[in-house]
What we know:
The protein is of the alpha+beta class. The protein contains 13 helices and twelve strands. The protein has three domains: about 90 residues, Alpha Horseshoe (Serine Threonine Protein Phosphatase 5, Tetratricopeptide repeat), CATH 1.25.40; about 80 residues, CATH 3.30.1390.10; about 140 residues, no CATH class. The protein has a seven-stranded mixed sheet with strand order 6-5-4-9-8-7-12, with helices on one face. A three-stranded antiparallel sheet has the order 2-1-3, sandwiched between helices. A two-stranded antiparallel ribbon has the order 10-11.
Amino acid sequence: MIEEVIEAFKNKDYQTAARLLRQLAQDEPNNPWVQIYIAHLHEVKQQLKEAETIYRKLLIDSTNPKIISQARQGLKRLETIEKEERKQALNQANADPNNQQFGVLLLEPIDPQNKSNAAKTLAKIMQIDPYTARLQLPTRGWRIYRTGPVGELQFYASSLQSGSIPCFWVKLVDIQNINIFNVKYFSESNSIKTTIICQNPHGEVGSLTFNWSEVTQSVEGRLPLFEQVVDVDARHKLQRKTKTLDYINFCDLHLPARKSILRINDLQYQFQQGIRLSSKTENTQNGAIKIPILSQATNRINWNKLRNFINLQLPQIPIWSDFTSFAETAIDYKEMLSRLPAHIDLLRREETPWDSAFQLYSGLAFLKNTY
């Protein structure tokens, strides 16, 4: 009967081939030639995963050189089909002018127990070896995986998500369009609303009043301050090095309804202006906040008091605080970061990708949890 199957395939009579193979599968379920043609029938029907499963099983179980050769040829055909489908899908995605905007694709953390299977999936989709794929999968925090036209990123994201690899992508312009207000100080506040003195995206200083309920989440991070130092190497020669002098604490408050981020940092916040802070902030019966006189304290203590004040008003909002591990890989994407204004003015001697990395991290959190 197997000769009749071969003849049906030659004549492209797949209906007859399917009928014969159903009978053969019952009569000779362990016959490798029957399995070869069942896999080939799956190919014809574009059931590529089913065909691949059979071919790979035959490679493991069979010792017949002809069967092994047929299975390898089948897998090669499947690879060619997948490459062509991938090429066509990418061409179609990039054909839309709206999909030419620049974007970034990020991998989300994956359960370490699932990493091995996920690495095989990632390797297949991105056509890389499984070992490299495993190294690229994060187990904590986001990792930038690819940049480029959003049509291409959308295609890869869809493929990865179908393979149970969590990821997301955004257009860089959507982050650029978020309004950033650099906070000088809180001028007034009660349990319902507060007023800040801030600098708007156009560099103008003014006041902004908002309800605490408008804040849906916050982002925290530390940005390094660098300095050039002269050091002596092992040969007693002078050499210039870049050294981290200090770290500046940042806190972004997200107001998605206003498409705005309020940015606070401990270097430029004017602690001697506006409301006075204490380690504990008490609410009076009418809802107004009673704030004792500020004691003389270090900048770090002042910052902790400010964070305590904010946390008391926003006790249950999510806090994104994994910036450092994100930035350690993000700063390698200098060309992409150069496209993103940081809205951070620390009077640096030279620009650093760390500032734009924080803007990117906060913007990603803003967009991912807003839309």
